[in-house]
UniProtKB/TrEMBL annotation:
Name of the coding gene: mutS
Entry GO CC: cytosol
Keywords of the record: ATP-binding, DNA damage, DNA repair, DNA-binding, Nucleotide-binding, Plasmid
Protein name: DNA mismatch repair protein MutS
Family: Belongs to the DNA mismatch repair MutS family.
Length: 926
């Protein structure tokens, strides 16, 4: 028996037996693939072994009747992964064959869990009718073949996809740029929507580009896969990794593959692509063809992502700023979760894409801001748009499934509803007057849709639709006369069956006689067993033919019932065939307008994002930023969007702060000091997040913001180790800091927190000092630099673009109060002891630390000001630890000793009286 892990239901092993095949016979040899062993296994198991050998790196879902079965090691892996019971079936090589299975009708649920764990699944279907197999002989096996490889980057089913996340399959190719450097080509495809983009990046930027794309699966040649220098990227992305052969990334075969995919003679119409980009495109197309097994995926023509078109944000910065996921990998608590007000899956994906890659195109940024500003000012229109958008399903993904032949009636309904929503939105925008660029473009696309397709789909599809087309019943009554006639025959036949049942019950005198149906027997007559014995005798045995005896009932048939069943079966089959014809016709009409539908889906997504930004701006009082090509960075009343949301939920207010890093020739550096828990990290992060929001096209959480375009964003906040690579916390800190200092330009924004704190004081202070000087003199970038090395504040007198800021704090009745307000100036202490007390350190530890601190400060002249490294004798005046307290002196207790020697239960009255006198005497003496 096999247990369904979701329902807890035990499924009898008999349910696995296919009607058309015998169970596998025990295998007598130990090498089933050997020719002399093939005769010793059942035909079905021989077929399984052959198909599995062709797909060794995938779990094989082997179709047997209503189940997908897994055998041998596949069964053991799936049993553990899915939590289903592992059974045994027959023998092979002298050992039992492990087996488990999942119902076909619920296979998507199990696939989702397997794909989520990183497995690949080969789906093997029956490709002929079992009746045809029986014609070839009793030992013939139904033909089967793998119709599809399901991998993390190639799934298309709604139930397997995250509606708000693009499902990117990324292919990599490379060419040597110099003796020590590589240039990488990237081809990113989302099969579920058909999006296809190419790009090229130098080696140092590969990690940042992969982090931006956030792929589910990465395909690459063996040489790249085995390169130890970039192997760490696969772990950092948490993507499935699939190496492919050299032929898949050959530029010549790659170009042919692209031409075949799009049916063109030349690629010139798509733009200019480098050879390494074409090689990557070929690799991804070869992989898609291999996994889809002949089903052609509809892809949009490839677009080229120009270098520098988006704000470069490396993987460490994304993680530190928690743009789309928190440090623990959760969406909740990230910036994306805080700003997402979209109402549809396509809009949510576009929002995430823009957040992952904010634009550096000034004109594009301004067009996006124009769209948001328009919808902020047009409240009723915004509400109407959002209501219509909420009714629009995910047309792009439904269209892909239709193109692949995997669609059901509900996918056609998704296009119907999406096109109807597009019509309503186009009407609303047409009456809104002059529209800004992005909204005007969307309005023109939606207005150009062919309304006839939406009307045809509405006329053809019923209101209540099945999941699968094979279930029938999805075509509306009155759409096709021939189908209505077939359905009428089916309904009339049911009435005839009911009439026949009534007549048989009257003629036999059995009131409980019933005519029933199942897939095994078809229609049959069922009576109680006691009455069934009567039907076996004259005069009824000439009319009723015995079929089956049950525990408490007997089943019969008759010539009349058999003829009626044939009529009903023909009517049902004809009706289903007609419905499938309608489905194919509608699908062809949809695919004929696929380009227009893809454009409309993109337009709806862009409107959803703009309306989301506008809703957020109105809800939280965010403002439009000014973005230009200068080096300004001036924010008034800035707030951290995620922290503010959390505080608001808790009923608390967020303290807003200003930040000015503006400069004419180079950016300013703000050195931030202040107490632990005072809010330095929040202040640093919020300014970085405001820059990201501004360049993605959103309004920002500030009273006002004027930002010069940022080309690269770097953030080094927090501490973590990388033990898998042998890197300590400090080593990781230095690696990330080195990347910043080597790559930051004058247009970059750098956020650094506590550089140098992971090593000895003099080492750390020296490193932080040198980093500040390098940022000032070499990089010339805008930077926020938080530190507890108060000695660094003196650099403001030497570095003309460095200024100091601190977080205000006050003390009240011995407690520290954090005001979270950033003001000009420098802090002279960090209030670490107060924070340690709040954290619960034992009181003796706090007292000892206070004494040590007092002595250290006394050694520095009593001012409490920390000195520069050259004049800081840290341990010269180290006070001795107080002597340990003496152990307590034991006090004699004569009464206690006497009591210890008395057993009250063993004393006679006289002995008890004597003991009392002794106790009294001992007390008098003590």
């Amino acid at each position: 028996m096999t247990m369904d892990s979701d329902t807890g239901r035990l499924i009898r092993s008999e349910a696995y037996e296919p009607a058309d095949e015998a169970p596998p016979a025990p295998a007598r040899g130990r090498r089933p693939a050997a020719p002399d062993d093939e005769t010793k296994v059942s035909p079905m198991m021989a077929q399984y072994i052959e198909i599995k050998a062709a797909n060794p790196d995938s779990l094989l879902f082997y179709r047997m009747g209503d189940f997908y079965e897994l055998f041998f090691e596949d069964a053991e892996i799936a049993s553990r992964a899915l939590g289903i019971v592992l059974t045994r079936r027959g023998k092979h090589g002298g050992a039992d064959i492990p087996m488990c299975g999942v119902p076909v009708e619920r296979s998507d649920d199990y696939l989702q869990r397997l794909i989520g764990l990183g497995h690949r699944v080969a789906v093997c279907e029956q490709t002929e009718d079992p009746a045809e197999a029986k014609k070839r002989g009793s030992k013939s096996v139904v033909r089967r073949e793998v119709v599809r490889l399901v991998t993390p980057g190639t799934i298309t089913e709604d139930r397997l996809l995250d509606p708000g996340r693009a499902n990117v399959l990324l292919a990599l190719a490379r060419r040597r740029a110099s003796d020590s450097a590589w240039t990488y080509g990237l081809a990113a495809v989302d099969i579920s929507t058909g999006r296809f983009s190419l790009g090229e990046v130098e080696g140092p930027g590969l990690a940042a580009e992969i982090a931006r794309l956030d792929p589910r699966e990465i395909v690459m040649g063996e040489a790249i896969h085995q390169d130890p220098e970039i192997a760490r990227l696969w772990r950092d992305t948490r993507a499935a990794v699939t190496p492919v052969g050299r032929g898949d990334v050959d530029p010549a075969s790659a170009e042919r593959a692209i031409k075949e995919q799009f049916g063109v003679q030349t690629l010139d119409g798509f733009g200019a692509f480098s050879r390494v980009e074409i090689a990557a495109a070929g690799a991804v197309l070869h992989y898609i063809a291999r996994t889809q097994r002949g089903a052609k995926v509809t892809l949009s023509p490839p677009t080229r992502q120009a270098a520098g078109a988006s704000l470069m944000i490396d993987a460490a910065t994304r993680q530190n700023l928690e743009l789309t996921r928190t440090l623990s990998g959760e969406r909740a608590g990230s910036l994306l979760a805080a700003i997402d007000r979209t109402v549809g899956g396509a809009g949510a994906r576009l929002l995430a894409e823009r957040l992952a890659g904010p634009s550096t195109d000034l004109a594009l940024i301004r067009r996006r801001h124009d769209a948001v500003a328009f919808l902020v000012s047009e409240g009723p229109l915004r509400a109407e748009l959002r209501a219509e958008l909420a009714r629009a399903p995910d047309m792009a993904r439904a269209l892909t499934r239709i193109g692949l032949g995997r669609a059901g009636p509900r996918d056609l309904a998704a296009l119907r509803d999406g096109l109807m929503a597009a019509r309503g939105i186009a009407t609303a925008l047409a009456s809104a007057g002059a529209l800004p660029g992005e909204i005007g473009k969307a309005a023109r696309i939606l207005a150009g849709l062919d309304e006839g397709l939406a009307d045809d789909l509405s006329a053809a599809l019923a209101d209540d639709l099945p999941l699968q087309r094979r279930d029938g019943g999805f075509v509306r009554e009155g759409y096709r006369a021939e189908l209505d006639e077939s359905r009428t025959l089916q309904r009339d036949s049911r009435q005839v069956v009911a009439g026949l049942q009534s007549r048989y019950a009257t003629e036999t005198g059995c009131r409980t006689l019933r005519i029933k149906h199942n897939n095994l027997l078809g229609y049959f007559i069922e009576v109680p067993q006691a009455f069934g014995e009567t039907l076996l005798k004259d005069p009824w045995r000439a009319t009723f033919v015995h079929r089956q005896t049950m525990v408490d009932a007997m089943r019969f048939t008759s010539v009349e019932l058999g003829e009626l069943e044939t009529k009903i079966a023909n009517a049902a089959g004809r009706g289903l065939a007609l419905e499938l014809e309608v489905f194919e016709s509608l699908s062809a009409s949809v695919m004929a307008q696929s380009d227009a539908i893809v454009a409309a889906a993109s337009a709806l997504a862009a409107l959803d994002v703009a309306a989301s930004h506008a809703e957020l701006a109105v809800e939280l009082k965010w403002t439009r930023p000014v973005v230009d090509d200068g080096l300004a960075f001036r924010i008034e009343g800035g707030r951290h969007p995620v922290v503010e949301a959390a505080l608001t939920k808790a009923g608390e207010a967020f303290i807003a702060n200003a930040c000015d890093l503006s400069g004419r020739e180079a950016g300013q550096i703000l050195l931030v000091t202040g107490p632990n828990m005072g809010g330095k990290s929040t202040f640093l992060r919020q300014n970085a997040l405001i820059a990201v929001l501004a360049q993605m096209g959103a309004f920002v959480p500030a009273i006002s913001a004027h930002l010069g375009l940022v080309d690269r964003l770097f953030s080094r906040v927090g501490a973590a180790d990388d033990l898998a690579r042998g890197h300590s916390t400090f080593m990781v800190e230095m690696v990330e800091t080195a990347a910043i200092l080597n790559q930051a330009t004058r247009r970059s924004l750098v956020v650094l927190d506590e550089i140098g704190r992971g090593t000895a004081t003099f080492d750390g202070l020296s490193i932080a000092w040198a980093c500040l000087e390098h940022l000032h003199g070499t990089n010339g970038c805008r930077a926020l630099f938080a530190t507890h090395f108060h000695e660094l504040t003196g650099l403001a007198q030497r570095l003309d673009r460095l200024s100091n800021a601190t977080l205000k704090v006050t003390e009240w009745k011995g407690d520290v109060v954090f005001l979270h307000e950033v003001v000009p100036g420098a802090a002279d202490r960090s209030y670490g002891l107060q924070v340690a007390r709040l954290a619960g350190l034992p009181a003796p530890v706090i007292a000892r630390a206070k004494a040590l601190l007092a002595e250290l400060e006394k050694g520095e002249g009593g001012s409490g000001r920390r000195k520069a490294p050259a004049e800081l004798p840290l341990f010269a005046a180290m006070p001795a630890a107080p002597p340990p307290a003496p152990p307590p002196v034991e006090t004699p207790d004569p009464v206690g000793r006497l009591l210890d020697g008395i057993d009250p239960d063993a004393l006679s009255p006289r002995e008890a009286l004597d003991a009392l006198y002794r106790l009294k005497a001992a007390r008098a003496e003590g």
